[in-house]
Amino acid sequence: MAATANALRLAREQLHVSAVPDSLPGREGEFRDILGHLETAIRDKVGTCIYISGVPGTGKTATVREVIQHLANASKQKKGSKFKYVEINGMKLTEPAQSYSLLYHFLTGEKATHKHAADLLEKHFQNPNDNSEPCVVLMDELDLLVTRKQTIMYNFFEWPNRANSRLIVIAIANTMDLPERVLSNKVSSRLGLTRINFQPYTHQQLFKIVESRLIGLGAFDSDAIELCARKVSSVSGDARRALDICRRAIEVVEDNADQNLEAPAQVTMNIIDRVVKEMTSSGNTLFVKHASTHQKLFLVALRNQLQKVGLPETSFHSVAHHHIQLCRLHNLEIPTSSVLLAICSALGAARCLLAESSRLDVHQKIRLNISDSDLVAALKPDSFFRAMVA
Question: pTM here?
Answer without folding.
Answer: 0.72
